[in-house]
Amino acid sequence: MNNTLRRRHVASISVDGQQSQAITEDIPIVDLGAYLAGSPGALVDVAQKIRKACTEIGFFYIVNHGANPQTVSRAFSAMESFFMLPASEKSKVRMNEHQAGWQAPNVAIHGDSFDKVVKPQATEAFKFGPELDPSDPDHRGKRRFRGHNQWPEALAAQDKQALLHYYAEFDKLAKCLLAPVAMALGQPQDHFDEAFGRSDSVMRCAYYPVVKPEENQYGLPGHTDLSFLTLIPPATAPGLQILTAAGTWIEQPVVEGGILVNTGDTLRTWSNDQFIATPHRVLASTLEERYSAIFFLYPNLDAVISCPPTCYGADLPKKYEDQTFADFYAGYASRNFGYAEKKAAAAAEGAAS
Ligand SMILES: [Fe+2]
């Protein structure tokens, strides 16, 4: 293993330090400790902080979240093993129309990008979702976006397990945020439970190589996420930028032990735009490579995105028709991942002829 991965970005800023003023003004810090310990009143407090964050900036840090640093560290090592596999091996699990597998470099153009001139990125990614038992009807079945994970045979079993363990831990953590988010929208704390009873969340591991200096070259161009919520543990190097309401791209501040969370388009739509989804991007670096492993909390494919009565009224009409998450997801995939969709269509055509 090279040293890059172990050398986490350590430009940490003390929460109590002078610079924390800038952090807390732009990106709030939500301490989950008391809430996760079941302290009376803590859930309401977290809900209030999340409401403020999601209506003003769309990003917040969670601290005292209980995620095991070893789980994260092992997953980052496993991710490096994946990306170090030869392209010939990774090509065998190229990303399919289910958003599962390897996204090769120099093909990924984000159709929803806020950056006008976008070149293909040198970034590679690997995405996977819930791992289904072969006895599950959706395992390799016809259900889109579910049960179609692709793992390279050359990837060691313990690396696959490390990534799946990371997925499971972050899935659990992300679901702890559902109750305060529901209350932040004026709903009972169990409002989202059914929609996330069987979530179809996705993990995106990414490798951003060092690139030559070039104009309009991004590691990942400006975009908003499809997700309900996105959980972003520290990457191995800086690069993430967030667009503030004032129209300024700011560097991601680093809070020691904190996990960055942002609101995605699914929650924005569900909340009738009461919560915002904020554009963010990753700069390409000419100096150091970068790894990140991001958890996207998605609801069940059958969940209906329907804004609750507390999010609309006479002065605030409903902006969106109710729709299933599966349809919402399909629209996103066709806008942003035409490459994978065309490939899948061609493969299906070839198989039929
Ligand atoms: Fe994103």
Summarize the structure in words.
By secondary structure, the protein is of the alpha+beta class. It has a single domain (29-352), classed as Jelly Rolls, CATH 2.60.120.330. 31% of the residues lie in helices and 17% in strands. It contains eleven helices and 14 strands. It has helices spanning 3-6, 20-26, 33-36, 42-56, 69-84, 87-90, 157-176, 178-184, 265-270, 325-336, 338-352, and strands at 29-31, 59-63, 101-103, 124-128, 202-208, 218-223, 229-232, 240-243, 249-251, 259-263, 280-283, 290-297, 304-305, 323-324. The strands form three sheets. The chain has an eight-stranded mixed sheet. A four-stranded antiparallel sheet has the order 6-11-8-9, with no helix packed on it. Strands 13-14 form a two-stranded antiparallel ribbon. A hairpin with a 5-residue loop joins strand 8 and strand 9 (249-251). Helix 4 crosses helix 8 and helix 5 crosses helix 7 (157-176). Bound molecules: fe (ii) ion. Fe (ii) ion binds at residues 223, 225, 280.
Q: Please tally the β strands and state the result.
A: 14
The neighbouring-strand order within the major sheet is 1-2-10-7-12-5-4-3
Outline type: globular
Question: What class do helices, strands and sheet pairing give?
Answer: alpha+beta
The rounded distance between the terminal residues' Cα atoms is 45 Å
CATH topology: Jelly Rolls
Following the backbone from N to C, one meets helices and strands in this order, namely HHEHHEHHEEHHEEEEEEHEEEEHH
- Let me know the CATH homologous superfamily: B-lactam Antibiotic, Isopenicillin N Synthase, Chain
Give the CATH level 1 class.
Mainly Beta
What's the domain count?
1
Low-confidence stretches: 1-24
Give the helix tally: 11
Strand proportion, as a percent range, falls in: 15-25%
Ligands bound, unique: fe (ii) ion
Cα radius of gyration in angstroms: 20 Å
Report helical residue fraction.
25-40%
Biggest sheet: strands, sense, closure? 8 strands, mixed
Mean pLDDT value: 87
Instruction: Specify the CATH architecture.
Output: Sandwich
